[in-house]
Design brief:
By secondary structure, this protein is of the alpha/beta class. It has helices spanning about 1-5, 15-40, 50-60, 95-100, 115-160, 175-190, 195-200, 215-230, 235-240, 245-260, 290-305, 325, 345-355, 365-370, 375-395, 400-415, 425-445, 480-500, 510-525, 560-585, 590-600, 605-615; strands at about 45-50, 65-70, 75-80, 85-90, 105-110, 205-210, 230-235, 265-270, 310-315, 335, 450-455, 465, 605. It binds adenosine-5'-diphosphate, magnesium ion and zinc ion.
């Protein structure tokens, strides 16, 4: 919750203020109108008369002319002495006769007598309204525009001139060490572009930071600018969406111009998915503002000089929906994953955000770090702040463990966190699942070494086991594919072995889908299945049209073959499952050991894993279930 509040106030004119202005203008306009109308209608307006008085004056021959306003049931008349009057019109036949016999000039007027208003409403008012709205919108647009045009500039110079120890640097970021290491190179380039240019080295133009909301992508981008001490031009994709036609594109143009003038510099496009969505997905995809902005961005990225020392950093939490054009080489071809922090990372982040706050002597942040799996940096910052607020509410001077715990509970129970937070039990399940993958990979022959196991969520997956080949491979053997399928199934099998068959989870869905794909390729593309033989089933690259392929043209075999393929896929997976189940249940002690250490540390590298597997079941400390 707090996170959102923090991000919003960059806007200079709040909508509330605009509304207030609008109301004031409207009131002013109405006041002016009423003055005008009373001037026109009031001063020379006819005097009201009772109907009886009118009848009497009629019989006394005082009336000269009458106009019957049928639309309003009014009679407007002129007396012989020249005074104008009005009265209600009663449509009784004698009246007309009377008027006729008195020889009075009768006019009938079906239009509205309130001429000022009617003329006004019909002619002037629409123009006024349009003008008024135009003025208002224009002001707003200009406001946005000004903001757009000056935002980069003012912000950049602000960041540049801030004294050095107030700038955001890598010291303000924790728990994302890998991302920091990768960005270090960018910093070095921005500091000493000549060094790289002299060597003719090409530095990536665009760097895409990918990670869940709140993991510190924006913070990292600012830290790069702070470390390199260069101007930082920032704009946010979601701002474009609110803009008026053409503004987005022109803002991009302007931004690049400014950045070019003050190079070395950084352009930061936050939430790039808001503009960088897949173009033309959806039939008849329109040529809208977003698309124009995206095109302009691509044009600018391609346009600037190879030698320019401008780095474009973009951030997104949805790399999957980005337009492929953005990811092409020469654009955002380097992607850096910003992960959710592990237990140690969380401790470091808590420390950073506790720096300027007073804590009671014996507060142990480690316990909080252990209690907060699945928390992002923003959640942790929020946690510390919430604890400080609680402390203030209780009129205490120092934040103690109780408030930190209380704040943790609040955030876990909060609407934003509820779905994302990982409970102790879920953590155990994820640990066993990943341990299952890792153990299978370790026990099966000729598999790639396990590089890292993590039960911190990365993107959509809750945990991951990363295997890296020792060298590049261009060919995959039959055995490797079979092992790969077994490793994929290992996660689910471990869940099954440790917990009961009834409590297996949906966590394996991605594994199952990958295993199925592998088995299909094994049969249909690689001809590795004896039953179906050396044949290719299905076409590659079905024709792509309208941006994306919506139809399935790929089937080029009979229904009975389809059944055979289906059966064979099931067969391969079933056999692999049986084999892996045997393997893991025979080594259950090892599985437990890996899982327990994972629960404790959340991340294991290859060496740690080897150590665990070497120490032959010394002690089985506690069992988690
Ligand atoms: P994102 O851009 O990924 O959504 P932000 O960079 O806006 O996340 O993070 C919001 C705030 O959360 C930051 O200003 C910072 O206070 C805190 N924060 C997030 N990640 C970290 C981190 N890795 N280390 C320290 N603080 C962090
Ligand atoms: Mg952000
Ligand atoms: Zn898995």
């Amino acid at each position: 919750m707090l996170k959102k509040k923090k991000q919003k106030p960059t806007k200079k004119t709040s909508p509330k203020k605009n509304l207030k202005n609008l109301i004031w203008y409207t009131l002013l306009a109405l006041a002016l109108l009423s003055i005008f109308s009373s001037y026109f209608t009031g001063a020379k307006g006819p005097v009201s008369k009772d109907f009886s008085q009118f009848m009497e004056e009629l019989s006394q021959n005082k009336i000269k002319t009458v106009t019957i306003k049928t639309s309003e049931n009014l009679i407007i008349g002129e007396e012989k002495n020249g005074t104008l009057f009005k009265t209600h019109f009663l449509a009784y036949p004698e009246l007309i006769n009377d008027l006729k016999t008195k020889g009075i000039d009768i006019k009938v007027d079906p239009t509205n007598s309130n001429w000022f208003w009617s003329v006004f409403l019909q002619t002037v008012f629409p123009f006024l309204l349009i003008g008024f709205l135009w003025f208002f919108i224009f002001r707003q647009a200009q406001g946005a525009n000004n903001q757009a045009l000056s935002f980069g500039k003012s912000k950049a110079s602000l960041l540049q001139k801030k004294d050095k120890n107030k700038q955001t640097t890598f010291k303000d970021v924790a728990g994302v060490q890998e991302a920091v290491e990768e960005l270090q190179e960018i910093v070095d380039f921005l500091k000493r572009p000549k060094k790289y240019q002299a060597l003719g080295a090409k530095i990536p133009k665009g760097v895409l930071l990918v990670g869940a909301p709140g993991t510190g992508k924006t913070l990292l981008a600012k830290a790069v600018a702070g470390e390199a001490n260069v101007p930082f031009f920032s704009l946010s994709g979601s701002e474009f969406v609110e803009m008026f036609v053409g503004v987005g594109a022109s803002r991009v143009r302007d931004l690049f111009k400014q950045a070019e003038k003050s190079q070395p510099s950084i352009i930061f496009v936050d939430e790039i998915d808001a503009v960088g969505r897949h173009r033309g997905a959806g039939l008849g995809g329109g040529h809208d503002e977003r698309e124009q902005t995206l095109n302009q961005l691509l044009v600018e990225m391609d346009g600037f000089d190879e030698k320019a020392s401008i780095i474009i950093i973009a951030a997104t939490n949805r790399p999957d929906i980005l337009d492929p054009a953005l990811l092409r080489s020469g654009r955002f071809d380097r992607q850096i994953v910003v992960d959710k922090p592990d237990i140690k990372g969380r401790l470091d982040i808590l420390k950073i955000h506790s720096k300027n706050k007073k804590f009671a002597k014996k507060t142990d942040l480690k316990v909080i770090a252990r209690r907060t799996p699945g928390f992002t940096g923003a959640d942790l910052a929020n946690l510390v702040n919430e604890a400080a607020l609680l402390t203030a509410r209780e009129n205490k001077k120092e934040i103690s463990f109780a408030e930190l715990e209380d704040a943790t509970d609040r955030i876990i129970a909060g609407p934003e966190k509820k779905s994302k937070v990982i409970s102790e039990h879920e953590k155990a399940i994820i640990a066993y699942h990943e341990a299952g993958h890792a153990l299978a990979a370790k026990l099966l022959p000729n598999t790639d070494p396990v590089h890292k196991i993590s039960i911190c969520s990365r993107g959509l997956a809750l945990g991951y086991t990363l295997q890296l080949p020792e060298q590049d491979k261009n060919l995959v053997t039959k055995e490797e594919i079979e092992n790969q399928i077994k490793i994929l199934l290992g996660g689910r099998i471990a869940e099954e072995i440790q917990f009961s068959n009834n409590s297996i989870t949906s966590g394996a869905s991605n594994d199952i889908s990958k295993a199925t794909d592998l088995a299909r390729n094994y049969i249909c593309n690689y001809g590795m299945s004896k039953k179906l033989g050396l044949r290719k089933f299905g076409k590659d690259n079905p024709q792509v049209f309208l941006g994306k392929d919506y139809s399935d043209h790929s089937k080029d075999y009979s229904e009975s073959t389809a059944t055979k393929i289906d059966d064979e896929i099931s067969n391969i997976i079933e056999t692999s499952y049986q084999h892996t189940y045997q393997l893991i249940s025979k080594n259950k002690a090892k599985l437990t050991k890996i899982a327990e250490v994972l629960i404790e540390k959340e991340v294991l590298d290859s060496e740690e894993l080897d150590k665990i597997l070497l120490t032959k079941k010394k002690k089985t400390s506690r069992s988690v279930a």
